[in-house]
Write a structure and sequence with these properties.
Strand content: 15-25%
Distance between the termini: 14 Å
Number of helices: 11
Radius of gyration: 18 Å
Helix content: 25-40%
Oligomer: single chain
Number of domains: 2
CATH topology of the largest domain: Rossmann fold
Number of strands: 11
CATH superfamily of the largest domain: Class I glutamine amidotransferase (GATase) domain
CATH architecture of the largest domain: 3-Layer(aba) Sandwich
Shape: globular
């Protein structure tokens, strides 16, 4: 049995907002995906942004840590950020495998000496397009099974701008050099993606509605009505992926996004090729 600590990157208000539009918190989304991919896993949910947070299980009794996305900004600092940096630092120091998407990547890069900030090339809203491996990522197990280029759910303004010394950048695209990365700190290993392999399209649609003003400000939609129409189309495609090829064609959504097993490939690779391998070795 695997014991996985799932840390929600949001503080209380962010968790409440996310739950109000998605019907579950970011940590609950991840727990559902992890347990689908690893039926023998037990997920222990934590909220390390909170001052009164108590880990439901000791790090040393866990097989891995997973850190979700967040509405926080690493560069803003503050106790909610510091507490999460401390948790990831402690997990890596304990030799745990750690996975994170979006916020999780930014936290891991920061504690290892890199820099996360607003992406000067602009945000990615909805899908990150045409991601491809770097030479260093060509045979990396995190990306095993991905085609030469792929799209993935993504919603972010911030990103890893300067990867930490000694890290390995595994994938990027024309919007961002660091779409996937490996970071090693002592005996701990972090694998992560700036994009969101855990998100279904209905959750992407809900999160886009929350970010409507930002999407319009970035020039990606002419107005909020257009954004909501786009979100409606994503939601409808999620509800009937096989019966709406017209929506998949119009939105440019391929099987790498539509098929859950393919969309979640990095999470499955993390479990099978890092967590279980380390568990057997131990």
């Amino acid at each position: 049995m695997l014991h996985l600590l799932v840390a929600d990157g949001n503080e209380r208000s962010g968790r409440a907002t996310h739950e109000s539009v998605c019907g579950k918190t970011s940590a609950e989304t991840y727990a559902g995906v992890l347990q689908h991919l690893a039926p023998d896993a037990v997920c222990h949910l934590a909220a390390p942004a909170d001052a009164d947070a108590v880990l439901p299980r000791a790090l040393t009794a866990c097989d891995a840590l997973v850190l979700t996305g967040s509405t926080l900004h690493v560069q803003d600092g503050g106790p909610a950020v510091t507490r999460q940096c401390d948790l990831v630092r402690a997990a890596l120091a304990a030799g745990l495998p750690v996975f994170g998407s979006c916020w999780g990547v930014q936290v891991a890069a920061t504690i290892a000496g890199g820099r996360a900030a607003r992406n000067p090339r602009g945000p990615e809203y909805g899908l990150a397009r045409a991601i491809s491996r770097t030479p260093a990522g060509a045979d990396h197990p995190l990306l095993a099974g991905r085609p030469p280029a792929w799209d993935a759910p993504a919603i972010h303004d911030d990103a890893v701008i300067d990867p930490p010394p000694g890290s390995t950048v595994l994938a990027g695209n024309d919007r961002l050099d660091v779409q996937a990365i490996e970071i090693r700190v002592g005996d701990g290993v972090f694998w992560g993606t700036q994009y969101h392999p855990e998100l279904d399209l209905d959750e992407v649609a809900a999160m886009l509605r929350l970010s409507a003003a930002g999407v319009v400000e970035a020039g990606l939609c002419p107005d909020e009505a257009a954004l909501h129409a786009y979100a409606d189309a994503l939601r409808d495609l999620h509800r009937d992926p096989e019966g709406r090829p017209d929506l998949a064609w119009r939105l440019g959504v391929t099987a790498e996004v539509l098929v859950p097993e393919r969309r979640r490939r990095e999470i499955g690779n993390f479990l099978d090729r890092l967590v279980r391998v380390r568990r057997r070795a131990a």
